[in-house]
């Protein structure tokens, strides 16, 4: 399949690429000393189809509209002859038709273009597509919205996954060092800052409607140990 094959009016287009960005959507940190890039690629197919203009699909944006569209259903594409439906490729049970894993955290050697390490990331513990709660947070590899950050101490922090966790990894080998439970979905990119010699990592935990994670209005900060920078 071509990277940018056109959508069609009379049939659905299937794309193996998630439409909200793979590695480029969330950005990724670089370890300049060893020339390694950290990314969180996804493998979640999407389907799309052109929709002719008509009731509920106007050519121009209504004057009373608040925003330009939605994340699923008909994307308006105002000013052109067609809207477009855009949705994950799901089964009637609401689960992706592709087998897991759907999300990874990985390191890429920028000199050799080889993957240094690659790990599944994320559990189905908190996401809506599963028809009943999954009490065991097994590491399935979930879709993500948000990116990772890195510290000078070779530690990687990422939330992003379709569950309520912030995680820390060893950037050299992908070993998970820690995870903290968030009060709502952390579909965002964390940030780090220093105050009076103490380093902190902060994440916005607001949840996400399409992911089905718990909604909230939280900013959560963690203090790093003095031997971790």
Automatic annotation (TrEMBL):
InterPro entries: PQQ_rpt_dom, Quinoprotein_ADH-like_sf. It is an enzyme of class 1 (oxidoreductase). GO terms for molecular function: quinoprotein glucose dehydrogenase activity. Residues 19-201 form the Pyrrolo-quinoline quinone repeat domain. The keyword Oxidoreductase applies. SUPFAM superfamilies: Quinoprotein alcohol dehydrogenase-like (SSF50998). Its EC number is 1.1.5.2. The keyword Oxidoreductase applies. Keywords: Oxidoreductase. This is Glucose dehydrogenase.
């Amino acid at each position: 399949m071509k990277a940018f094959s056109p959508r069609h009016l009379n049939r659905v287009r299937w794309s193996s690429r998630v439409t909200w960005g793979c590695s480029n959507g969330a950005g990724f940190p670089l370890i300049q000393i060893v020339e390694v890039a950290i990314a969180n690629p996804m493998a979640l197919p999407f389907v799309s189809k052109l929709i002719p203009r008509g009731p509920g699909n106007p050519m121009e944006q209504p004057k009373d509209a608040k925003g330009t569209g939605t994340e699923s259903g008909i994307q308006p594409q105002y000013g052109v002859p067609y809207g477009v439906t855009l949705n994950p490729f799901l089964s009637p049970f609401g689960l992706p038709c592709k087998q897991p894993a759907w999300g990874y955290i990985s390191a890429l050697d920028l000199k050799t273009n080889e993957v240094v390490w690659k790990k599944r990331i994320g559990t189905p513990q908190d996401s809506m597509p599963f028809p009943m709660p999954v009490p065991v947070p097994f590491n399935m590899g979930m879709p993500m919205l948000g990116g990772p950050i890195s510290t000078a101490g070779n530690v990687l922090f990422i939330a992003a996954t379709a569950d309520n966790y912030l995680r820390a990894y060893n950037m050299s080998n992908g070993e998970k060092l820690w995870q903290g439970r968030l009060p709502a979905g952390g579909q965002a990119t964390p940030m780090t800052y220093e105050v009076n010699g103490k380093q902190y990592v902060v994440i916005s935990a607001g949840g996400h409607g399409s992911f089905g994670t718990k909604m909230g209005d939280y900013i959560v900060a963690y203090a790093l140990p003095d031997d971790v920078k």
